[in-house]
Design goal:
Length: 215
């Protein structure tokens, strides 16, 4: 299945609940920001640059724009800063740090500024290449860790699980941010700027040619 078709059929599956006006405000602010002069608000500059590399590894340019071409990296940084709860922010930074530490060790490079997509891709692929059973177990451990953090209890994730947590979270945020962009909303998903007739039990293939609705 090509990416355009996959995006048309993919629903929102992330564990974040965000009011539509808030999400639209974030998307609009990201659209207005010049990516070439982007200064992250949540991440450091070097971490932000690597975030940009990673989202393009997840969604490279094909028959649709790459993730950075629709400012997904800016969206994720802004979302982390303005929407994530403090414990989610802490987990995101911690897990990204563990991920980048592994990339540095494997690439034998000294600083994040030296990292390139070719250094990042193998670690990302390995973190996500797990069985369904392993994924379920990982998610349970991460949920327990998150709950402990919320309650102020001591908790720790091992390095491998931290890398999975970051990679899995980033993949979901990248797809979500991409689907929320103006280009994808208007040109890939089903788009109806002025709602018309409500059909509660219509066939999706007939009503939108199988596309998911744009926000």
């Amino acid at each position: 299945m090509d990416r355009r078709k996959a995006l048309r059929n993919m629903g929102l599956t992330l564990g974040y609940v965000v009011a539509t006006p808030t999400l639209l405000s974030l998307v609009q602010s990201c659209k207005q920001e010049k990516a070439i002069s982007w200064i992250p608000t949540f991440l450091s500059q070097d971490a932000g640059n690597n975030l940009a590399h990673l989202v393009d590894i997840i969604l490279p340019k094909t028959d649709t724009p790459s993730a950075t071409e629709v400012n997904v990296h800016i969206f994720i940084d802004r979302f982390a800063q303005e929407v994530m709860e403090p414990e989610q922010q802490a987990i995101f930074k911690m897990s990204m740090g563990k991920f980048l530490e592994k990339v540095l060790a494997d690439s034998k490079k000294e600083t994040m500024a030296e990292l390139e997509p070719a250094d990042l891709e193998p670690v990302l692929a390995k973190a996500l290449k797990i069985t369904k059973e392993e994924e379920v177990n990982n998610m349970e451990l991460i949920a327990s860790y998150t709950e402990a953090i919320k309650e102020g209890k001591p908790a720790e994730l091992d390095d491998e699980l931290s890398r999975f947590a970051f990679a899995n979270n980033l993949r979901g945020l990248t797809i979500w941010g991409y689907k929320s962009s103006e280009y994808v909303g208007e040109n890939v998903l089903a788009y109806l700027p002025v709602p018309g007739e409500y059909i509660g039990c219509g066939d999706l293939n007939e009503l939108t040619q199988g596309k998911a609705w744009s926000i």
